[in-house]
Amino acid sequence: MNKSPLKTIRTLLIIVIISSSFTSNSYSQDLTNNLKLWSGISVTYKVNEKLKIKLSELLAYNASPSNYSFSQTKIALSYKLKRRTYIGGGYVKGLFNDSNSLRRQGATDSWFNKLTVDRIYGNFSYKHNIVKRLTLKHKIEFQYFYTDLDKYKTRTIYSARIGYNVRKSSLSPYIEGQFFNYSGGVISSGIKRSRLKTGLSFKPISASRMRVSLYYISQNEFNTEELSDNDYSVLGLSLSFKIN
Q1: Do the beta carbons of residue 231 and residue 223 sit within 8 Å?
Q2: Average pLDDT, whole number, for the chain?
Q3: For residues 45 and 56, is the Cβ–Cβ distance under 8 A?
Q4: Which letter, b or e, does each residue of 12-40 get, where b requires 16 or more Cβ atoms within 10 Å of its Cβ?
Q5: What's the CA gap between 71 and 61, in Å, rounded?
Q6: Measuring CA to CA, which residue among 176, 174, 172 is closest to residue 203?
């Protein structure tokens, strides 16, 4: 028997709160350019045939020395316009270590003695076949930040993701490229960041509603003028669950 929507949402909130609690004893240090380890969990609830709600949590740690980097808690809505075409939006709460720089840019005190940098966003995505079992997904996202960050007040991100569905299995290798356009900061507007992500997703248990994704990210910033570039690499693991 299916859970009521209210009970399901309560379950999702408990999962996110438990995940967030791991940041409470994190060691303070500003963002660095070294290798990072990301771990994430998300739960998606299908409200009806067109509408989905998703709660997710991302924890980022520096690999060496091993300590807290940042975390993000996200609530998102996705609406299906037609086959493989979606619009969406949501709210993201970012938690960062205390620093004079972030306070100057408007970050405020939040959970677990961290500073919050929050944003809202909206996006549009479309996926189509290249050849059989090989797909290309386009996505455009606009982000608005509540704080007046030095590099941007708003960001527009274009993503292109190629995925392959391995025959007779749940394996799906993929590669994704992203370009970030900055606007509203103290530097000039324009494309200032790129990311390349490659990974593999699969179901550890074929009959389950859980998927695991292992991935690697390389990020490069450029043309940030008097501000330092934030370049880093990521090794990541994420778990995703579907309810209903």
Answers
A1: no
A2: 89
A3: no
A4: beebbeebbeebeebeeeebeeeebbbbb
A5: 9
A6: 172
pLDDT one-digit tens code per residue, 171-222: 999 999 999 999 999 999 999 999 999 999 999 998 889 999 999 999 999 9
The letter for the amino acid at 174 is Y
pLDDT level of residue 22 (50, 70, 90 thresholds): very low
Closest CA to 134 of 158, 113, 165, 109: 165
Amino acid found at 215 = Y
CB 95 within 8 A of CB 115: yes
| Among candidate residues 93, 95, 92, 91, the one with its CA nearest the CA of residue 115 | 95
pTM of the model: 0.85
* CATH class of the domain at 5-243: mainly beta
Indicate the pairing of strand 210-221 with strand 232-243: antiparallel
Token pair for 113: 């003695």
Residue 101 has phi, psi (to 5 degrees) of -65, -50
- Tell me the C-alpha distance between 39 and 33, whole Å: 18
- Strand, coil or helix: what is 128? strand
Per DSSP, helices labelled H in 92-201 are 100-104
